[in-house]
Structure formats: C-alpha cells, structure tokens
UniProtKB/TrEMBL annotation:
GO terms for molecular function: transferase activity. This is Nodulation protein NodU. Residues 389-536 form the Carbamoyltransferase C-terminal domain. It comes from the Bacteria. Pfam families: Carbam_trans_C, Carbam_trans_N. Keywords: Transferase. CDD domains: ASKHA_NBD_NodU_N. The gene is nodU.
Amino acid sequence: MRICGIKLTHDGAVALVEDGQLVFCLEQEKRDNNRRYQAIDHLESVVSALAEHGLDPRDVDQFVIDGWDGDLESQFQVLSGAGPITLKGAPYVERHAEGLLTSLDGSGLMLGGRLFSYRSYPHVTGHVTSAYCTSPFAKTEQPAFCLVWDGCIFPRLYYVERRGARFLECLFPVIGHVYAAAGHHFGPYKRAGRGDWDLGVAGKLMAYIALGSVDEDIVAVFQELYQERFAGDTELASHYRADINSAEPLLARVHDFFEASALRLRDQAPEDVLASFHLFLERLLVSEMATAVERHAHLSGARNLCIAGGCGLNIKWNSALREAGLFDAVWVPPFPNDSGSAIGAACSAMVVQDGFVPLDWSVYSGPALLDGQLPSGWNSEPCSMRELASILASNKPVIFLTGRAELGPRALGGRSILAAATSPEMKDYLNDVKLREHFRPVAPICLEDRAPEIFSPGTPDPYMLFDHQTRTEWRDKVPAVVHLDGSARLQTISRTSEHKVAELLIEYEKLTGIPLLCNTSANHHGRGFFPGAAAACRWGQIEHIWSDGVLLTKIPETELSPGDRALTLV
C-alpha cells in the first residue's frame, strides 16, 4: 500500500509511506535553495518528487492532502499542467471529539496529466498521527496523551491508543502565535504595525530571552491581563473565546493584549519583559497540563506524552513538561511543526487502515544530494574522516554534506556547518557568515555516551528538542556552544550510528579528547539547506566543503588565474 501525503501550504512537502515505512519526505524549502516555509504552488512538485524515486502518480494507491484553515473545509489554489485549479480539503481542527479520523473525500487532483481522487484529514490529525506513530510508545503499543499547540489554535490535548484517538480538551485559551506576537511588541524584532508577520521570530526569541532576567512583577502583569482578556469571565475574554475558529480576530486580540502590556511595562527592559513572558507561559502550560492529567486519571495505561505543533520546537517548554514529573516519558518528533505535516497526512490514512501502528522511519529521509556543475576556483580531492577531523582541529569550519537530508527544521549532521567549539570566537564567526544576531546560540553535536559528562542532564537528544545546561567544568573547554545562560541546544548521536557524522566525531575525539563539534545549518540566510556541494560553493563563505568523501577547498583569490577569477563571479 503506497500512500502519498501532501502538504500544500507553508512548509510544503511530499511524503511517501509504503507498507508502514517512510520512503521519503521532500520539503520544498530543501529543494533548489528555496525560501524557508516554501509552499507547494504547482502540482508538478508532487510529480517530480515521485519521479525522483522511480514512481509515477499511477503507482500510488492513495493520495492524502493535509487540511488547513476553515471551519468545515479548506480550499487550495494551485497550478497544474492544465492551469490553475481549486482543491478542497479538510478543516484545521476536527469537527467533534471523535472526528479526528473523519476525512473529506475529494477529486480533481491533476498529476502528470491525469486526474486522481484523494482524501483530506484535519490539519491537527496529521500532527497527532505523525507524533504518535513515530514515537517509542507506538512500538510497544502503549497509550499516550498528545499535546498539539499550533500557531492559530489553543493547546489541544488528545488521548491515543492502538485502536483510536479522541480529543480531550483545550488546556487554556492562548494561541501558539502569542510567542511570536510578543516579539513584535518588545525587543529587537519590534514592529510599528501589526503586519509583516515573521514565522521565524519565535525561535529567535528563545535565544534572546537569555539576555534578560525574570521579574515576578512583570509576570504578575501578564497574569492579570491574561485573566482579563483571555481566560476570565470578563466581556473582553468572552469575545476573544467566541472567535475560537477565526485566526485573524484571535491574533488581533493577542496584539491588543500586548499593547495593553506595553503601557504597563513601558519602563521595563524588553529582554526582561520577554524572559518574564516566557516563564509566565511555561508555568501556565505546566500547571494546566497537571490539572488535565489529574482530570483524566481514569484513562488506563502508562503516562506518556507526545508533543506536536509549532510550539513543540520550544525546547524550554518541552524540558519543563518532561521535568514536571507528570509523565513517564515525553516524545517530540524532529518535525513537530508543519514540516512533518505531509508525513502526518500519510500516517492518517495508514492509521485509518491499520490503527495507530508504528511507522518505520529515519530522520535522514529527505532529498539526496544534488549533483551539479561546480564553479571554478575550488580544488577537489578525496578526504578521509581522520583528515577532515584534522582540519576541524585546526579551528577551520567545514560544510558537511552527506547522504539524504534530515527531516524537520534543524540540521542534524546531514546538511551542517561543523566547527571546533574550543574557541569563543567561533560562535561569532559562524553567526557572522550566517547573518545571524550575535546572541543566537550555536548548537553542539556530541557523542551520546559522553554527553552526560558535559551537559546536564545530557540524556539522549538525537533531534535537538530539549534544554541542557553545560556543566561548569566544561564551559571554558567548549565556549562556542555555551549560550548566554549556560544552556546548550544539544544534539546527541550514538557512537555506533552508521551516519558519517558519528565517524567524524569519533576521529575528532581521538585527536582532541573532545567529543563534540559546533553544528549549525548549511544554508543561505532565509533559505533551506544547500541541495548539494555546488550550491555551497556558490555561497562561498566557508573555505572547506566535505561532500560524501570529497573535500572541496576554496582557492585563495591571490592564487587564481584571471580566467578563474572571472568564472568565480558567474
């Protein structure tokens, strides 16, 4: 059974699941140096994705389109070979508590000159199915709660077991976009108006709040305004909750909330305001989750939690939920945001057929490296892992490209810039070449068995989704990966992993005694990962590029011939 999941809107992607195994997931932003959050606006992208894996649309048994905005249904305006067409889809949220797996059946999906029928499940359904089916709980047939908190919805709690899933409750009346909206009213990303929405602000704020300190008086202001405008029995709060299915009015009231906050907090430092707001939300999330778990204590089975939706990328909230003692285990997939929605769409159809069974998957299921004409001005030679480790040990960064790209928004060693973490200047250098603010952290990638020695808790974290503190005795040894508050966005990798980055870390450890490197994504500013070495060469900001056994080294400008210099400008 071949199921093709399609996410048409932002974070567009095409995924194929065959007999319970993820064959591929191709995110649009990771193809052809596309912009971040790229949508699928032409159905030829679906045909091309299948063709790259030797398939024709006729080889697919079922197509599934992820749902989107709408109370009863959504609509998508896309291009096909025949011109513009309109496709209908399921709504964002299921219509009733037992309706998570209720589909909208559609027709008119034009692929390769042929029409195909399809199904569409609510957008939140894909989050639930992708989170649970990729989890360790699915493998052991254990039930789990599933928290879905996306940008334009309140945090929703579900209960999942082998035979089905159902909606339990909304935890509290705050949309996920509230975090990014805070950044539009305070701090370095403040805007004069309410437009020009930036999806990347929320992630940047996680780094920025390390500059600030929590002030309980500021927290109290947010608590008071939350009750007045969102949660209480006031007229303002009632009107806000009445618009639960309308994204624009909800967001407008969120902006009103922050404008009222700004009047009360005009004398406070913005970094303190944002740090305090972060903690206010974290406390609210943990306390309301605790109340909900107690309320649903009658549900049988282990206390497990899956986290999905864009807010699942907030590593501090994930850690707070894990450390609260409410759950035996917490799982966050590497694609909790919409980058996993195509996988979720395919999983939804799989679940309808087989129940909530485990998906056989690998995080390295993205696009293969793209072959391309290398620009002149680069030397090429074979390079072993030991030789590459020596380059890194000499404090030179390397673009590291190998195999298929990782899924989700974070570089996990397949499309990374790696560097020694022993110099405090390396973080600033990497942020400079990436055009990032200097308060942004650079993540460590570390051999799993040595992570507890360097970080607390240092538990396995293969997808960079929890918060870790750098142990005091290591902060001066690896300063480039230590954030302003001593934390680190750690990625661990097993010493026995077959991935090339594990082999490199082992060789680097042999040379230096240090089992970790700096790891940041290999991409243009505002774009997805480099699709291949040629794109990395054209970027030209890093002297060394390693691509599946071949080292490309930029020839210094003084050594180029006049002809070479002209070619490098092309």
